[in-house]
Amino acid sequence: MKESLCSHIPALFGPCWPCLFLPPPDGPRLSADRSTAQCAIPPGPPFPAQAVRDREGVRKAAAVMRSIAPGRLFAAGHSYGGRQSAMAAAEDPTMADGLVLFSYPLHPPRKPEQLRTGFFSELRTPALFVHGTLDPFGSIDELRAQIAAIPARTDVLAVEGAAHDLKRAPGLAGEIVERMLF
Questions:
Q1: Looking at the 3D structure of the chain, how many domains does it have?
Q2: Considering the entire predicted model, what is its pTM?
Q3: Is residue 166's pLDDT more than 60?
Q4: Is 41 inside any structural domain?
């Protein structure tokens, strides 16, 4: 199944597709891991003109995962991917049962006045933010202040000493899964 699902996801959903988890307590786990797919993703920052298409890809990926596996669905993404997953969930609250947002880009580095949180008040999906304490896209304090606008449950898992790439976060999988079981 990994070959048939993961190798075709980029063609089906575009370059911004999330990791999707279905962790029923006593059942199988499925995930679509972007790193296992063979696709060409352009280096550098994402193209804002593609954001609508990227969110549609997130919704399609969630629909496919719901059609092939029972249980709760968690949409996730790192940086732009997490932002697009969160925006898609704000547009369609039934898309996922929860969000896991790694290094959410609150604002561009050194530009805290350019917040990327305008939709937070519309987000009705519980969200776990996994964020490094040295992330230049927003501090932990800035993140906590902004997520106060989200009416759904939220949690922050601060990764001490980690920057935007979260390289200092290995070994946190168990804690992430514990916290995302809203």
A1: 1
A2: 0.78
A3: yes
A4: no
